[in-house]
Amino acid sequence: MERERAVLVELVREAYPQLETLVNLDQWMSGSFTSPIIFVTAQGVREEAKSLTSYKAVADAGIVLHYPLVEGYYQPLSAEPLRRLLRQKGYSFRGQSSDLLIDVDSTTFRIWNERRDRTEITFRFTYHVAVPKQPEAKINTFEIEGEWS
């Protein structure tokens, strides 16, 4: 899950470069952070075999934009920078540090603005992972039994 969160953090930082990012679930649940901030989480859903050398992983992403509080009023943050960035990149994004390419399922992209202090964004994404190849001992000596004619 670390690689998934890392690429989501890079995605959010590209869309919102001026905001801090939070990935610690316990800190977020306790509310011990200062707004404005973006909380990012990822949850694995399933893995599917793609070939003998790779598999496809499916995960759900959750991004919460916590609004800044100015003079007692919350100043909403728009989800449009993230949506625009994903559209520009064809709903695919490659992380620089992890080199992980995620493909966002645009049909699952949802934005909720019901709460007065935040906007919640969820979507499902997939990525491919290479199966690590196990080193095998090479046979360099051959013993041949039998008669030669």
Outline:
By secondary structure, the chain is of the alpha+beta class. The protein has three helices and eight strands, in the order H-E-H-E-E-E-E-H-E-E-E.
What does this molecule look like?
With 149 residues, the protein is an alpha+beta fold. Helices cover 19% and strands 41% of the residues. It has helices at 2-15, 25-30, 80-88, and strands at 20-22, 37-49, 54-66, 69-70, 73-74, 92-94, 101-112, 118-130. The strands form two sheets. Strands 1-2-3-8-7-6 form a six-stranded mixed sheet. A two-stranded antiparallel sheet has the order 4-5. A hairpin with a 2-residue loop joins strand 4 (69-70) and strand 5 (73-74). Helix 1 (2-15) crosses helix 3 (80-88). The longest helix is centred in the N-terminal third of the chain and has 14 residues, at 2-15. The protein is elongated and about 95 Å long.
